[in-house]
Amino acid sequence: MIVTAIDESWPLFRAHTPRWSSQPLSGAGAALHGGRLNRPGVHALYLALGQATAIAEYQQDEMLMPPCMLVAYRARIASVVDFRAGYAPGVWHPLWQDIDCNWRSLAFLEEIDPPTWDLCDQVLAAGHSGILFPSQKSEGVNLVLYLDALRPDDRIEVIDPRGDLPRDQASWPAR
Fold first, then answer.
1. Measuring CA to CA, how many Å separate 79 from each of 50, 63, 160?
2. pTM
């Protein structure tokens, strides 16, 4: 594995569903059903290294993009697996060839654990806090952080100098 550190100079973004933008540091949504690189029960925060990538990831395959709130972050993370350059034999375990698998189909239709969940397990077992990986939706790069694996000196913060983000669900109208 190739390992790197994230510092405060890295631009990090996430496009949030407006209703849940009051919890920009939560990985609970990903933990509920799982995500590309986290199995259910693993709190994961998916971020992008660019605004356009964050929006493309949020939009997924929707023709018209639903409303979103773009949030910027600053982080200092000591140890993340760096898969930006992709698979190279001898550097990566062969399972890393499957990072682009259709994990949703495997998990929800075929009801089998996608290999990407095993990648998460490998990274966590090796003591790392996340994975940098190419976006499937843009030319950009994503970062998944495993919130429960952050080290005491790791930091992630939301950039909200004017306090514009909602503080709780009460700021959204009832449906």
1. 20, 37, 25
2. 0.91
Q: Which domain covers residue 120, as residue numbers?
A: 3-163
The answer as to whether 114 is a domain residue is yes
55-83 pLDDT tens trace: 999 887 666 777 888 999 999 999 999 99
**Would you list the DSSP string of 113-132?**
--HHHHHHHHHHHTT--EEE
* DSSP state letter for 89: B
Higher pLDDT, 26 or 92: 92
User: What distance in Å separates the CA atoms of residue 154 and residue 74, rounded to the nearest whole number?
Assistant: 11
Is 168 a member of any domain?
no
Q: How far is CA 99 from the centre of its chain?
A: 14
Q: Is residue 175 part of a domain?
A: no
172 within a domain of the structure (yes/no)? no
Number of domains, the chain: 1
Could you give the C-alpha distances from 157 to 6, 76, 161, in angstroms and in order? 13, 9, 11
Residues 6+ apart with CB under 8 A from 24: 14, 16, 71, 73, 158, 165
Do the bridges between strand 69-82 and strand 12-16 make them parallel or antiparallel, or are there none, so unpaired? antiparallel
> What CATH number is attached to the domain comprising 131?
3.90.175
